[in-house]
Predict the 3D structure of the following.
Amino acid sequence: MRTNRTFTMLKPDSVEKGHVGAILEKINAAGFRIVAMKLTQMTTADAKAFYAIHKERPFFGELVEYMTRGPIVAAILEKDNAVEDFRTLIGATNPADAAEGTIRKLYAASIGENAVHGSDSDENAAIEGAFHFSGREMF
Ligand code: IDP
Ligand code: MG
């Protein structure tokens, strides 16, 4: 298993607000290489499967509604220590708690609509990347 890759989604709010270019600029400036990337939209079944770990949480319905309401930018990113360094770059789940200069501090509206996803482990990065991309789409 590769341990130098992570998976991200620029969530529907980022696409709606025109923040894709600015967020990709920050990702690039932080030294991540784009391995795979596309504009796509998750179905309700996709979002329920992707976030299955949260299915008992009170916000699950709201999360599925949010994540399916419009297109996202899905991407696989490569860098040494990718998972941890990307979580640092995006900041805390709640933008109110996110460090200055992080993507969520700059672009997230709330704990629910928080601009970007970042994998939380190497294992989940591989699972999430494979959820969105075939081998032919990874470079
Ligand atoms: P993470 O995205 O920082 O890893 P998780 O706890 O894995 O955060 O939650 C997944 C996603 O669910 C969050 O990014 C956010 O969009 C949403 N979420 C998390 N906690 C809440 C909440 O308390 N209210 C509404 N939505 C939430
Ligand atoms: Mg998470």
Q: What stands out?
A: The radius of gyration is 14 Å. The chain has a mean pLDDT of 97. The CA atoms of residues 11 and 72 lie 5 Å apart. The longest strand covers residues 33-40.
